[in-house]
Amino acid sequence: MGAAVSSPDRAVDEEGSDSHPSRPGLADIPESCISSLLMNLDPPDICKLARVNRAFHRASSADFVWESKLPPSYKFLANKVLGEQNIATMTKKEIYAKLSLPNRFDGGAKEVWLDKCSGLVCLFMSSKSLKITGIDDRRYWNYIPTEESSTCRFKSVAYLQQMWWVEVVGELEFEFPVGSYSLVFRLQLGKASKRLGRRVCNVDQVHGWDIKPVRFQLSTSDGQHSLSECYLQGPGEWVYYHVGDFVVEKPNEPTIMKFSLAQIDCTHTKGGLCVDSAIICPTMLRERLGKS
After folding, report:
1. Closest CA to 230 of 274, 190, 263, 268
2. Rounded to 5 degrees, what are φ and ψ at 262?
3. Is 86 part of any domain?
């Protein structure tokens, strides 16, 4: 037969000598070209391609690749959670990797990170960062430890025993990347604990929430407003109550917001409520909260 044998990189003639020079491979692509290509991909895909070869690995670490994935307001966020001195010694890839992880600030009362796909901010505010009417009077409210570390991001929740006037208010000034965001409260009727390794929820003190709805409000410094009402439901389960949405249109400008939940009808008492946190997340991710 004596036919020539070929491979993807070269052709061999009948006498075994190369008839054509080696064809270019992935290793021959200039790193600058690879980096320009990677800029058009999402961060998870960049990390996958970094494993192709050394050239891709080096190209994937270029500062301009990762700076293109950071939002314009990333310096505000980085200064808040990393500190200005640390930023000066970090590569853009290191900054992105750090900001993509949950970072605590304000004495550990808040937690923030960048969503890896959208580049938008996710922010959790614990009950201790909120203004709760009567929180200093143990006849009404108590901070109780929680063992639900898999679902509660903070070590304690605010628990209402009984009160006539219930109001929880949050205030925040923050530079968000441009995009659409939702704000929700994470609440539960009843006090959860573990018994013989199983989760149980005491709902003995739950009362008053089926008489009048709770009012949720959100307002921002640029004139956005939201108002809604609903009855609290699902005793024994954490429920995410949508307060409202807001849009950030200008980068590098702080958004000042105020939000609240209130049931201030003094014709009846209310009790048995756990307040875990208030959450700000990209609107497109809001439906995932209950599943995460």
Report:
1. 263
2. -155, 140
3. no
Token look-up 């990677």 returns: 38
The answer to whether 133 and 158 have CB atoms below 8 angstroms apart is no
pLDDT, tens digit, for every residue of 50-103? 888 888 888 888 898 999 999 988 999 999 998 877 888 899 999 999 999 999
Q: State the Cα–Cα distance between residues 136 and 143, nearest whole angstrom.
A: 10
Residue 79 lies in a domain: no
**Long-range own/partner contacts, residues 73-76 (CB < 8 A, 24 or more apart):** 73/175, 73/176, 73/177, 73/251, 73/252, 74/99, 74/114, 74/177, 76/175, 76/252
Whether 283 maps to a domain, the answer reads: yes
Using a pLDDT cut of 90, give the percent of the chain over it.
59
* Total of domains in the chain: 1
Residue 143 CA: distances (Å) to CA of 73, 155, 161, 196, 239: 34, 10, 11, 23, 19
Task: Give the global pTM.
Answer: 0.83
128 pLDDT exceeds 90?
Answer: yes
- Which has the higher per-residue pLDDT, 152 or 145? 145
Q: Which residues contact 225 (CB under 8 A, 6 or more apart)?
A: 217, 218, 219, 244
* Domain-embedded: residue 59: no
Domain of residue 195 covers 109-291
Q: Strands of 131-132's sheet, edge to edge? A: 131-132, 166-174, 255-263, 214-220, 225-230
